[in-house]
């Protein structure tokens, strides 16, 4: 019986993963379902009796790499995330596969089969395989990622195209995601999950400043300190004002190089 740990902060994603797991394997036990970096650190500090970890990357209180950086993880990890910019980090942290949301059962099954094959190998063979994947990804990562230069926006009367270069920011509100362009016009995006949009965006140009807002670098005019761990961001000739969350401020500053 395989002991499985799930680290995922979105309930629908956990439900889908467990459904696929039930289809792929008849003998397993889910040790725990965790939603935060803090909980993952706490559990993995206390126990090493895990055969496989299914892990998201962006959690409620930070990125899961904070866990794998601080702790020695001996079991393989299958990452399931909406972000494609963390490929290298994933394979440096015992990752054996990288499921990009939304993924199919076929894609999940391939990752599971890889785990089964590796389970019978020696640790040396396992480390060699991970190292090989790491180098292949490093050589081909830039060519394999294609970001959108425009989004197709559907209305009742028409379909029009919104250029990414004109998008100042994205904002999520009650299950609807809006894009605001440089004329401050609001567009309703076809995507309903914020992470889906981010897979199409160049992370060098866009940054999620909190759970529901993302900004484009070139439209940032100035920053002001709002409180100890939060900054105010003035965008698009100061026509729009947004604020970082406490958890994202440090990474946002690093992203800007300040």
UniProtKB/TrEMBL annotation:
Start and end residues of each Response regulatory domain: 3-116
Keyword Phosphoprotein found: yes
One Pfam family named in its UniProt record: Response_reg
GO molecular function term, any single one: DNA binding
InterPro entries on file: CheY-like_superfamily, LytR-like, LytTR_DNA-bd_dom, Sig_transdc_resp-reg_receiver
Sites of 4-aspartylphosphate modification: 56
Keyword Iron: no
Alphabetically ordered keywords of this record: Phosphoprotein
Record protein name field: Response regulator transcription factor
